[in-house]
């Protein structure tokens, strides 16, 4: 799924008002599996590499493919989760590590059913097995056009849940932006298609 949906999903399940440290761990955990992709994107822009080469070649080869695999490893986050839970018995704030790991695992669970050719080796380093779903979150050749609408629906529902829970103006402003990001492109292109 798209990064913003991962953040909204993790926040809707784990975030609580008035708990900034916990909520930061939730957001970082939801973002971290996609970190390698953003690093590659920014680096390629600085290095002036054409976008087509980035997503057809660099993304599928080391070191970028390795970085993506590490960031999407369920065993790694389960290990961090266990360390966080154990350590929190002696040092309470270590529970944040566990929260971070759960948010990352939610990201992996949400990605599993919607990746085809770009499926991740979620069991690395135990196995290189990849689940190739019939549904892609983006590729129209694998129902991506339908899932884009489904994802927008999920994202808007999650935004409404968070809107009701959080009253801070800046949080609500971000949620409005998220809804606009889901509705904007289809409305924009839909309108232009009518003209
Ligand atoms: Zn992802």
UniProtKB/TrEMBL annotation:
Q: Which UniProt keywords apply?
A: Membrane, Transmembrane, Transmembrane helix
Claim: Transmembrane is one of the keywords in the record: yes
Domain of life the protein comes from: Bacteria
Which residue ranges traverse the bilayer? 25-47, 67-87, 94-110, 146-163, 170-189
Protein's UniProt name: Cobalamin biosynthesis protein CobQ
